[in-house]
Amino acid sequence: MSIPPPTRKNPLARTRQPLLPPVPRSRAALGLGAAASWGRFALQVCASCEHVQYPPREVCGACLSGALVWRDVPSGGTVIAATNVRISADPYFRERTPWRIGTVTMDAGPAVIAHLHDGVAAGDRARLVLRLDKAGQGVMLALPEDGRGDERDGKAMREMTADPRDRRVLVSDGRNPVGQAVARALIEAGARVVVGIADLWRPFTPVAGAEVFELDVTDTDSVRRAAAEFGGRIEIVVNTAMHIRPGGIIGRGDVITARDEMEITYFGFMRLAQAFGPALRFRGADGTHPACAWVNVLSVFGLAGSPAWGGLSAAHAAALSLAQTLRAELRPGGIRVVNALVGPLDDEWHQSVPPPKVAPAAIGAAVVRALREGVEQVAVGDVAQDIVARWRDDPEVLAREMMEGMA
Ligand SMILES: [Zn+2]
Q1: What pLDDT is stored for residue 245 in this prediction?
Q2: CA distance 253 to 242
Q3: Which of 73, 318, 330, 386 has the highest Cβ tally under 10 A?
Q4: Is 184 found in the same domain as 152?
């Protein structure tokens, strides 16, 4: 079942209000969202008896031990019951019935209630994935085990992901190779793309198939003009604006470069979000292809600063913190905020950095994949993946490793 492209909107029709699914209140349950945000399939496992827990809880259901650790577990299972929910007291599901849910007995042990993909029925083998729902909570989704059909077209799947196909996407900076590669990947994925170009009168590399609009993230008027022109028609914003220069504190001797870094990476992000955020949030349930995501391409050094790139690291740490606030502010509209964390780029500013370096095309592919899978965080390239793994293991040890130049 393929979703046809959106039709022209009737300006008199009601814009469907974004509603959110119910939110559980336990701290343990938030662990599901944390795993889902990275696209991991992790559940709590008891450190004493290895019992796999679901739903998340404070103590082991088998031996009452409090030592529960989130760990990746096998995701296969068998659907033992399927139900088509036609009537719901919950306002979010009331607008979306019929909605399929079912009970899946996991190979790892527990039986779970999951949203069912259209392609799985009672008795089928299924592959469980953890996805974020519109409220940002981790939920189970059962997909066909053999990958039958296009999983992106399932109804539950579309609510929990942000497939760029047939959506209109703004890529904020088409002057740098990353913005160009991201725009190309999105067009390839079936999106309609507007690329922002600062100082249109200067020569730039066009991206085949993309519209171009004057947009300078360092200029509030420019950002506001762009938002007034087409902000109400954008479903996904990808902020690719970046300013890459090496250097820390003492060697630089002044704050000129640092100010440029903040102007583009931090204030530029804030200007874009102030101009485009309100319409995105309002249109989170609008039609068959509602507004759905905001993507930031940021340096992985925002998680733990690299002294050789100290100014850049600080600007990206600030932007990461801002992304957290934007995530909270866009949540009422069900808009997902995705951070694509990248390692050193294969570009002119990283010539002295030894490989592996990440190619712009890999960033484009990762952004599309993140949107399709509905994750909130993705590490792009070997360096970024390694740093994220060490950060998850122990952020304080990682900070020391960065000081020793071990990353
Ligand atoms: Zn136990």
Answers
A1: 93
A2: 22
A3: 330
A4: no
